[in-house]
Amino acid sequence: MLGTASESKKKIYRIIYGYWQSQCLYVATNLGIPKLLRSGVQTVEAIAEKTGTKAEKLYVILRALAHLGIFVEKPGRVFASTELSDLLITDDSPSIGHFLMHITEPDMWDAWRELGSSLKTGEVPFELAKGQDFYSSFMTENPHSKYLFNNSMSFLTAEAIDPLFEVYDFSRFPTVMDVGGNQGTLIANIVKKFGCQGILFDLPQEVETAPSNISKYGVLDSVKVVGGSALEPLPKGADAITMKYFLSVFSREDSIKVLTNCREALPKDGRVILLQTLVPSLGAPVEYPDGTIPALAAVQMMITNPGGHWRTQQEYQDLFAASGFQLEQVVHTGTSLTVMEFSPC
Ligand SMILES: C[S@@+](CC[C@H](N)C(=O)[O-])C[C@H]1O[C@@H](n2cnc3c(N)ncnc32)[C@H](O)[C@@H]1O
After folding, report:
1. Given the CA of residue 183, which atom of ligand 1 is nearest to it?
2. Which has more pLDDT, 5 or 78?
3. Hey, what domains does the chain have and what are their CATH numbers?
4. pLDDT by residue (tens digit) across 284-295?
């Protein structure tokens, strides 16, 4: 009995400690400590001097992160990097460090504080906290947050590409449009791998910076970049529309608007290819092998997104059916990303 009770309390303690861990990680990464340590072991005093911090306080944080396996502590209050801390370096290419910084940055914390009150008013926590919409207004006014967000999206997309391309063939579509495609990482990779033409569609302020990302893949000539809102009519010309972690932005009502716009933009034999992590239905495993707990991620989506969150397969099917689409196939990538292919009915 006692054993069972303490195991139960241990589970609760672990959940309580969750934000302590992510905040310590945020602070160290924001100070650039993973990069500092990559070039060699350093005393806490040396790290404090280079980061303009107080050694006594910094030591408490670095020791905690060492106990969590992020750094290694050696005798004499000396710290060294690990494989984990190297992953957090943010100045090379898009990394999990960008994702950490985006998710844990102070503005996001402000929004989480409003989670409880948002339940009562139905408002978006981020909008309650900051007085502005996350995508259109906040991103435009906060270039550093936009940089972190865009690099997070590019990092997550790059991670998903190989498993996706192993199970899903885009070569049957002469032109593919990625709606809500952010910096164009997905569409650039589709065009490069399958030789089709691409259209990148996202908000005007978002696509401004996309061409330089697309050109890294050498396919800028084959990708048309279009700025606009998917709540308005979409450009025609694509045989398939991909939407990766995009429909989860919108409420049910707005999702139906977006899907109706897709239907009008596509030919009769066109396809909408939803790329999404599905929330497991009751009784199914709650965590993917890559560590994603979709029901928890759905809360994060609710924090910023104007009405959306992550849904179950059945809920997506219902949304598409209400917008005049039928399910053609579901393809699992072996990661937390699933492909649901729909055709107009
Ligand atoms: C969660 S991100 C997903 C980005 C990308 N598809 C990916 O998986 O990396 C959502 C994207 O939707 C875009 N977005 C939000 N509202 C939009 C709208 N009304 N019309 C078009 N794009 C929108 C955002 O700018 C952002 O790039």
Report:
1. 27
2. 78
3. 2-89 (1.10.10.10), 160-344 (3.40.50.150)
4. 999 998 899 999
Give me the mean pLDDT over the 198-202 stretch: 98
Number of the ligand 1 atom closest to the C-alpha atom of 243 = 6
pLDDT tens for each residue of 279-338? 999 999 999 988 999 999 999 999 999 888 899 999 999 999 999 999 999 999 999 999
Q: What is the mean pLDDT of residues 200-214?
A: 95
Ligand 1 centre and the CA of 325: distance in Å?
Answer: 21
* Atom 10 in ligand 1: residue holding the nearest Cα: 246
Residue 78 has pLDDT above 80, yes or no: yes
Task: Give, using CA atoms, the residue closest to atom 11 of ligand 1.
Answer: 180
Residue with tokens 């929004």, as numbered in its chain: 111
Q: Determine the average pLDDT of the residues in 144-164.
A: 95
Q: How much distance in Å is there from the Cα of 202 to the middle of ligand 1?
A: 6
Residue 173 zone, left/alpha/beta (φ > 0; ψ -120 to 50; rest): beta
Q: What is the mean pLDDT of residues 225-235?
A: 98
User: Which residue's CA is the closest to the ligand 1 atom numbered 15?
Assistant: 135
Nearest to 182 by CA among 217, 149, 133, 158: 149
Mutational test site, ligand 1, from 213, 246, 247, 250, max ligand atoms within 8 Å of CB: 246
What is the 253 CA–ligand 1 centroid distance (Å)?
Answer: 17
Ligand 1 pocket, CB under 6 A: 135, 153, 156-157, 180-182, 202-203, 206, 229-231, 244-246, 249
User: Which residues contact residue 301 at a Cβ distance below 8 angstroms, ignoring those fewer than 6 apart?
Assistant: 248, 249, 308, 309, 310
The angle formed by the CA atoms of residues 160, 340 and 256, to the nearest 5 degrees, is 115
Sorted by sequence, the CB contacts under 8 Å of residue 178 that are 6+ apart come out as 184, 186, 187, 190, 198, 199, 200, 201, 241, 242, 243, 244
Tracing tokens 């290694």 back to the chain, one arrives at: 72
pLDDT at 5 over 80: no
- Name the residue of 102, 182, 257 to mutate for ligand 1: max ligand atoms within 8 A of Cβ: 182
